[in-house]
Sequence to fold (919 residues):
Amino acid sequence: MSIEEKQNSPTYQDFNSIEYPKNEKEVSNFIKKFYKSTTPIEIIGTGSKTKIGKSIQCAKTLNLSKINGIIEYLPQELYIKVGAGTPIQKIEEELKKNKQQLAFEPIDFGFFLNGKSDFGTAAGQVACNISGPRRFKAGSVRDHILGFRGVNGKGEIIKSGGVVVKNVTGYDLSKLVCGSYGTLVALTEITFKVLPAADENKTIIIHDQKVEAAADLLNRSISSSNDISGAVFFPEEPEVSGSLKNIENTFKLNNLQHKGSITAVRLEGAKNNIDQRIENLIKELNITNINISILDFYQSDIFWNKVKSLEFFSNTKNSIVRIVIPPSACAHLIYQFSNKFKYYLDWGGSLIWLEAFELSEEMFESIRKKAVRFGGYVTMIKNSDYLPYVEDVFTINVDKFNISQNIKKSFDPKRILNPGKMYTGI
Amino acid sequence: MPKMDRKVIAKKANIVNDLKKIIKTENVLYHEDETRPFETDGLSAYKQKPLIVVFPENTNEVSKILSYCNKNRIKVVPRGAGTGLSGGALPLADSILLCLGKFNKILDIDYRNRCVVTQPGVTNLAITQAVQDKGFYYAPDPSSQIACSIGGNVAENSGGVHSLKYGTTTNNILGAEVVFMDGTITKLGGKTYDSEGYDLLGLITGSEGLLCVITEVTVKILKKPETVKAALIGFSTIEDGGNCVSDIIASGIIPAGMEMMDKALIHATDNFVKAGYPRDAEAMLIVELDGTEIEVKELIDKVSSIAKKNKYSSIKISKNEKQRLKFWAGRKAAFPACGDMAPDYYCMDGTIPRGKLAQVLKEIARLSKKYNLPVANAFHAGDGNLHPLIMYDANEKNSLEKTEKFGAEILKYCVKIGGVLTGEHGVGVEKRELMCEMFNNNDIQQQIRIKKVLDVSSLLNPGKVYPILRKCAEEGRIHVHRGKTKFPDIPRF
Fold:
């Protein structure tokens, strides 16, 4: 079997040997060696997100989890420089000491992939570029990377960016690396921009709305001057086979007594001004006569942690699909879903998380077609036993594929870094 | 600049005829008198007339021009409004200058998805003006916003005084339509957040016209905050001002904008627009805070007490919108005001860790004495972006060379203390020889490889961003005798 056939084969199994480089130089030496022998390598961290993307079989695995630790943290300069394999939790704990945070809200896929929390590593978050509920306000992972160091497919150590926010020196390769699923460089060092964490947060819950009305409320909230930092909708869900969680046993909170759908809007800041903004928003949305509750700081914090960790889908055996569309299209798209699907809206309707029972490849492609028509894109985040493999995990068109193939070549000419992880041929 | 292609120059008449078949005759300018207005951009120290100037009117025309030039090996320099300060739109003698001035329409205002789809020639300010009646605005606001085009903003990843809180262009655009050198038209992103696959939109933003020509942009618009106020704070030493900036950030406040000026500029701008600045202060801060009424009041109180702790000499809080805009009028007129102090000025653009502000200012003052050239300093202090304005007289012999040397020393110092060469003006022709201060051979080669795969013959805006004089080679192992080496056009690092 030729290397190319091996790279493109979904079933090829080779002797699996894992390397654990301890520093950048070792990563470079390993990749130089594999470049010489044209040996495909799978790059992993702690493995929290390896199930996302196409499954690949490589002769070697490069595990970067030993390149970890905080290299430099200057709270007053608003940045933290870490080894690529540093656990996100460790970074967040360190930032908390100075009342700071990673504002893009690192996402936790542990619950639905393995049944327990697992944020993974800094490099894992960067490689996937999937951000939490605050994304529409604060930007995504790609907006919070100031610079990186890494090793390309020839084994050369490269860097881009720096430690300052305003920087236009050379191409912004940090953006390219974000969401590249380890196909361009093996990251060794990442500098994140950090921001002050708000003193408090509160959440307005509007009960029992239909999806169209909810999407409208979320949209008007974000389009107001009240500085909203979270906007989600959980519909009154249908019974979906293979799904273990529902709204009630996901969100067991004192002030969430009502049955039916939940439309939730988060406000963060200092206590006084949150109360003023809540008052303003209730007035602006004209919801004084509708059934609403306010979650205080402690309940609100728990609520949003559960949102960003997708606990709603914990331990599911079904497929999980992520759909991003312009917010105005979300209700139209949802009305076309089968009743075997369970979903919720995030980012004020721009992001749909979908859990689908007995999802066939045809159905998946039909969802993608509709989403693309609305100007969006669709990702298969978790396969199910019913649909263990899809050819196109990510959405792409021909032009972008050709450009991406060239970009890949410029970093990794022999296509040895995570080959085929995103697209066949890249 | 790259080696001139005399064959292209010799074929000028044929090229003009060919271009007239692609676009309207009146949109092809080739007489010397017609091309002269385009010989420079915002960095007027450099001048070069292009071979031909073209004004395409739609994306298909752009695609056809690029594809024609690609086939015939003709260099192309894209140009927006020509306000760039690093010479990014400086023409080459053997190049076609591709002007996007006729792409001047806003195509779609979509309040439901909070975005505006616009052609690249529309000015930055025009976008805000188009949506402000509904209370929205486009956040990045470079000082040249009245004239600079949104396409140029994307090409340079422009910032502005509010980028501390709201980010630069790259954080505020959702999509773009671009044309590559081979004529391929591609849509990147759209009206959604992020996009899948490699972030090509992120790559082309700030690529200074080297990778593609931008023919359409989708920008994010935001709702205006309920209340905005600005504080004008004077300090009797630069150190106190610098420490105040660090303390404000360390206290957990991210102001909408935080600008600093030194004494020379306080006087110059106050003379220019009568902004009511504290003329006895050595340094002055404008701190802008936005949010709800209560929030802004709380923040103003906090900022005032931090400023007091840092021994402010004066403080003024804007009482109304008119006064707030007056505070800003001085800062936004910093560059023209400088023009009043000296026949010529040269604007630098490094970024440093903000805690090193006072240290860098001292170094600039030392260099100012060494070169015997006065400097006025304006900073986007919140994000550490410096704009030292070096004043000189271009009529004096060698004064530009001296000024450039001075500027280069400032930028090298910025890099030395952990900063970068350029925060928002771009590398262009101005700073390309300094790239080796920040990047090594591997870093630069990686970037050049990206350029090569998207523009195989290096025809799009060549000579910009990456070093031409092979300074790295000259100072490294390769000995270059009197500039003569085999194949001098091949990059060596």
About this structure: Residues 1-197+396-426 of chain A form a domain with the Uridine Diphospho-n-acetylenolpyruvylglucosamine Reductase; domain 3 fold (CATH 3.30.465.10). DSSP finds 14 helices and 18 strands in chain A.
